[in-house]
Amino acid sequence: MAHEINQPLAAIRSYADNAAILIRRGRGDDAAENAAAIGRLTDRIAGLTRQLKGFARRASPRREPVSLREVVANALELVAARAAALHVPLEADRPAPDLRVLGDGPRLEQVLVNLLQNAVDAVAGREEARVSLHLVEGDERVAIEVADTGPGIPAEVRGQIFDAFFTTKADGLGLGLAISRGIVEDCGGNLILAGGDGAGTVFRMEMIRAADAVPNVGKPVGATP
After folding, report:
1. How far apart are CA 79 and CA 201, in angstroms?
2. For 223, what's the count of Cα atoms within 13 Å in the CB-facing half-sphere?
3. Are the CB atoms for 142 and 205 separated by under 8 Å?
4. DSSP string over 132-193
5. Between the CA of residue 186 and those of 5, 83, 190, 204, what are the distances in Å?
6. What number of other Cβ atoms are within 10 A of residue 220's Cβ?
C-alpha cells in the first residue's frame, strides 16, 4: 500500500512544481490543468485508503464494466514523470472511448502502474531504452502488453517471478507481481510473462471484454512548462 501511495504522491509533487513555473510565466490556464490533475491524484489516494479498509474487511472483489481508456490514461499519468526523469520514452496505444472490460478500475490501474514502473526501472540508463504499451483486442477478451527493451528475465527464475517475496531487485519486496496477478485473477482475467528471453520483457494482462459501450470519458492531463 505504501508503494501504491508513493506513486501518486510523486506525480503530485511533479505537477505542483510545474504549476509554480507556469504561474510565474503567466500561463494560468495551464497551471489550472495541473491543479485539476493534483485533485484527481488526491482522490486516487483516498480511493487507495478505502481499499485498505476493504482488505481489512475481506471485501469481495468487484467486477463491473470500466473504461479501459481511463485505466490506461490514469496509469500513464502516474508513471510519466518518473519515466521522463529517467529519459525513458513511453509509447502507448490508446483504447477506443467505448472499450470497456470487467473489473475494478482503480485496482486494474495499480496493476498497470506496477508493470509500467517495473519496465521503466528495467531500461533506465540503457541505450535505446524504451517502454511500450500495446493493446490486443479479441471478441471476448482484451489484452494489454507492457514491453521493455531491458535485459530480460533469466530463464532459471522465470517460474518464480509471480511468487510472493521473490524479487530480483536489491530494494524490492517481491510482492508487486504476486499482488498484481491476484488482482487480475479477481477480475476474471490473467497476468502472464509473455516474453523475457534476453531481448526485453513482455507482460500480458488479459481481461474480459464488457459488452456494452460507454461515452468518451477521457480526462486531460496536466501541462508541462
Report:
1. 18
2. 15
3. no
4. EEEEEE-SSEEEEEEEE-S----GGGGGGTTSTT--SSTT--S-HHHHHHHHHHHTT-EEEE
5. 21, 29, 9, 16
6. 10
Helix axes 105-123, 68-85, angle to 10 degrees: 30
C-alpha 178/C-alpha 163 separation (Å) is 6
The alpha carbon dihedral of 10, 13, 19, 24 has a sign of negative
**What digits encode the pLDDT tens for the residues 185-219?**
999 999 999 876 667 899 999 999 998 544 333 34
Structure confidence by residue, pLDDT tens digits, 153-174: 877 777 777 776 545 554 444 4
DSSP result, 18-63: HHHHHHHTT-HHHHHHHHHHHHHHHHHHHHHHHHHHHHHHTPPPP-
Alpha carbons 154 and 21: distance in angstroms, whole number: 44
Query: Which of 164-170's residues contact partners 24+ apart within 8 Å by CB, and which partners?
Result: 169/121
Q: Looking at the DSSP assignment, which residues form a beta bridge with residue 100?
A: 67
Environment class of 48 (CB within 10 Å of its CB; exposed 0-12, middle 13-18, buried 19+):
middle
Task: Please state the length of the chain.
Answer: 225
Instruction: Quote the radius of gyration of the chain (alpha carbons, Å).
Output: 18
Strand pairing category for 190-195 and 131-137: unpaired
pTM for this model (two decimals): 0.68
Per DSSP, the three-state class of 184 is helix
Q: Which residue has the cell 470519458?
A: 217
For 188, the grid coordinates are: 476474471
